């Protein structure tokens, strides 16, 4: 299964509550922080919600 590296590039301050909560559920707390997760539909949906706040890379 593919894995994705998600890095927070913008702050959640001033964003809608669901976007802030999505960042937290992804495990992102600070700008520049990265997490590696399995590529699942649930995860993709969370990334799409905050796509303007994160970057996504595929990791082997």
- Biggest β-sheet: strands ordered side by side in the sheet: 2-1-3
What count of helical segments does DSSP give? Answer: 2
Query: Using only CA atoms, what is the Rg?
Result: 11 Å
| Global geometry | globular
* Amount of beta strand: 25-35%
Following the backbone from N to C, one meets helices and strands in this order, namely EHEHE
Low-confidence stretches: none
Global structural class: alpha+beta
Can you summarize the main beta sheet?
3 strands, antiparallel
Q: What is the average per-residue confidence, as pLDDT, rounded to a whole number?
A: 96
CATH topology grouping: Ribosomal Protein L30, Chain: A
Gap between N and C termini: 9 Å
GO molecular function: structural constituent of ribosome
Family: Belongs to the universal ribosomal protein uL30 family.
Subunit structure: Part of the 50S ribosomal subunit.
GO cellular component, one term: cytosolic large ribosomal subunit
Describe this structure in words.
Helix content is about 30%, strand content about 30%. The mean pLDDT is about 95. The protein has a three-stranded antiparallel β-sheet, with no helix packed on it. The chain is α+β, with helices and mostly antiparallel strands and about 60 residues long. The protein has one domain: 2-Layer Sandwich (Ribosomal Protein L30, Chain: A).
What are the defining features of this structure?
2 helices, 60 residues, ribonucleoprotein, alpha+beta, globular, Ribosomal Protein L30, Chain: A, three-stranded antiparallel β-sheet
């Amino acid at each position: 299964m593919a894995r994705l590296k998600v890095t927070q590039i913008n702050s959640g301050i001033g964003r809608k509550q669901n976007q802030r909560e999505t960042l937290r559920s992804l495990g992102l707390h600070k700008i520049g922080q990265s997490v590696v997760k399995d590529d699942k539909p649930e995860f993709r949906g969370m990334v799409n919600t905050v796509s303007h706040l994160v970057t996504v890379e595929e990791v082997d």
